[in-house]
Amino acid sequence: MWTGEHGGYPAFDKVNPASIKAALDEGMELSRADIADIAGTAETPTFANTIAALEDSGRALDRARRFFGIFTSTMNDKAMQALETEMSPVLSAFDDDVIQNARLFARIKAVYDGRATAGLSPEQNRLVEEYYQNFTRQGAALDDAEQATLKDLNQKLASLYTKFGQNELADEESYTLTIENEADLDGLPESLRRAAESNGRWVFTNTRSSMEPFLTYSTRRDLRERGWRMWIMRGDNGTATDNKAVISEILRLRAQRARLLGFATHADWSVANNMAKTPQAAIDLMMKLWDPAVRRAKEEIADMQAIADRENAGITIEAWDHRFYSEKVRKATYDLDQNEVKLYLQLDKIRDGMFWAAEKLYGLRFAKLEGLPVYHEDVSVYEVTRDGKRAGLWYFDPYARAGKSSGAWMNEYRTQERFQDDVTPIVSNNANFVKSGSGPVLISWDDAVTMFHEFGHALHGLSSNVTYPSVAGTAVKRDFVEFPSQINEHWFPTPELLNRFALHVDTGEPIPAELLAKIQKSLKFNQGFSTVEFLASAIYDMRIHLAATPDSTIDPGAFEKSSMAEIGLPREIVMRHRPTQFGHTFSGDGYSAGYYVYLWADALTADAWELFEEKGVWDPATATAFRDDILSVGNAVAPDEAFRTFRGRDVDTEALMRLRGFA
Question: What residues pair up with 366 in beta bridges, in sequence order?
Fold first, then answer.
């Protein structure tokens, strides 16, 4: 365990690529010894000497892998990329060695088969089932020849995932939109200009946090098109960092692996372990929303075209016009200027608002710590307490930089447990805001929502209250893990929060009631666009994995064109993540054939939020029930059972239609 004050913490001041490699090597050696002891004992298999022993094994390797993941996502310089390339297949092979240990699996199966009469607690029983299912899903029951094939496939895939992510990162760092003439900045807010200024020029990077505001506000249509094409073509430029061939090989190898494991497709293998159970169930939910979302999107595009025509712009709306004219429609419809709203959204204040909501709902308090080691000067650390007792640590890494993955995410540095010791969790939130040259960092409304979303994951990890680490925190089914994060978004636009933390950057005055009313009225604005661009990616992800076969070579670009034409994606909208930059699905297995999970979780969210609205969105009893029934139980309770306990029934998916304004 990490040691020291505040319940222990990662020693980032002692970490570099060389030390991470040494720790991984030593960790694997120690873990092999642990596994050999567990598998080799002559004792009759029991929960204590097999499952519990596995829970307590490999701790040094687990810590090393957490450092490895932190640095590959936040400090991925050339040395770290070389280590990632070297170690990803090695770690994959190690994992397969554990899964394919026949004596170990025989012991797990014996405990699984005898669990009904073993006197296990509900959490212990759940843990046994998870171990058995994980081993069987990963090929533990295959014969020797099949396991050798599987191990080879997994190592190849691990290398391809690394290559995909590094190619995407290279294109984000290599391409920029550089403006030499200040007149070409017309329309851009002052905060965006200041953030982009560099030695007398203005440099807009190939990241979402830089390009989306540029596309929203720049009046220069030619520059919007240049920036948009640069952004959507990451990994698709026909260079050494092109990802199309990488994707084709990933699809082929995944299909081979799925067949080997007894599944028709990779999509069937992926979804079988989620709440949806089958690809068709996921597709049914997506298509339920698709037609009304497209209808709404076309109405939104017509509104944009009408404004362009009134202004005699002489254009037909294209994808690079969408955000620009959408903002004009927002102003015309709701008299709402996002530039005006942004003046009230200071990064630090929104962070404080997250803390305030977490305390009001769940009794969590955040206090900044000084002096703890961090991996970069931008990172800050907070101790989290509840009722005066330590609940964990929260790390915040908000700014973009070279070597950092784009987007926003949550990391779990250490998972809560009560197994051998009472271990408190350590979590982080990571973002890619553009650091301001001077003064507070102003963020967009969507960025603030994203902050609350990712903080919802952090609250999930911090609220964990189970015994065994394998079923603690965010280690839940993939289409359940987004539920706590998505519902946390809903507290951001509440008047109680905005009146306290949406403060004007210059005057410090709270957001005016008139402006707040406009914001509240506009919350369902542009739902057609946002739903369609997400669904396009999710449908593509599922369909291409259903189409891939062990012998096929799928062109991901051609499949994008044909599948989007088949479902009728409007010409003015592209997938939120085009294939060659779709890290969710092609940089690892986590969200592969699983991008739909955000929608599945949104169905849970919509239904749960209606209960909060009914009881009062700050109702203490409802918040406590959500903490106790959802946030604290991890995967110690099956997700459908956890939801029923909280809601009193199964999910009502019509709530999702109401939430999106499509009812």
Answer: 384
Token pair in block for residue 35: 């596994």
Question: Alpha-carbon distance 88 to 504, whole Å?
Answer: 47
Q: What are the domain boundaries of the chain?
A: 12-141, 176-232, 244-336+526-595
**Mean pLDDT of all residues in 65-78:** 97
- Confirm if 89 and 393 have CB atoms less than 8 A apart: no
Task: Report the chain's mean pLDDT, rounded to a whole number.
Answer: 96
* Dihedral angle of Cα 490, 493, 496, 498, to the nearest 10 degrees: 140
Q: Is the dihedral of CA 127, 131, 137, 142 positive or negative?
A: negative
With cut-offs at 50, 70 and 90, classify the pLDDT of residue 437.
confident
User: Percentage helix, strand, coil, to 5, in the chain?
Assistant: 60, 10, 30
Closest CA to 21 of 67, 58, 59: 67
Name the DSSP class of 346. B
Among 55, 130, 383, 454, the active-site one is: 454
Topology given in CATH for the domain delimited by 12-141? Glutathione S-transferase Yfyf (Class Pi); Chain A, domain 2 (1.20.1050)
Q: What is the pLDDT of residues 111-132, one digit of tens each?
A: 999 999 999 999 999 999 999 9
- How many other CB atoms are found less than 10 A from the CB of residue 211? 20
The structure tokens listed for 3 are 């040691």
State how far the Cα of 568 lies from the Cα of 68, in Å rounded to an integer. 42
- DSSP, collapsed to helix, strand or coil, labels residue 477 as coil
pLDDT of residue 354: 98
Integer Cα distance of 544 and 559 in angstroms: 7
Helix axes 17-40, 78-99, angle to 10 degrees: 0
Distances from the Cα of 72 to the Cαs of 26, 78, 465, in angstroms?
19, 10, 29
Q: Which of 572, 366, 524, 541 is nearest to 459 (CA)?
A: 366
Question: Are the beta carbons of 454 and 409 closer than 8 angstroms?
Answer: yes
Q: How far apart are CA 440 and CA 301, in angstroms?
A: 34
Does 454 qualify as catalytic in the annotation?
A: yes
Contact 79, 140 (CB under 8 A): no
Please tell me whether residue 493 adopts helix, strand or coil conformation: coil
> In the sheet that 426-433 helps form, which strands lie side by side, from edge to edge?
364-369, 380-386, 389-399, 426-433, 409-414
**Alpha-carbon span 516 to 405, nearest angstrom:** 34
Which amino acid type is present at position 234? R
Amino acid at 326: S
Check if the beta carbon of residue 224 is closer than 8 Å to that of residue 218.
Answer: yes
- Residue 387: φ, ψ to 5°: 55, 35
Cα gap 322→308, rounded to integer Å: 11
For the domain made up of 244-336+526-595, give the CATH fold: Neurolysin; domain 3 (1.10.1370)
> What tokens does 398 get?
């908000």
Total-model pTM: 0.92
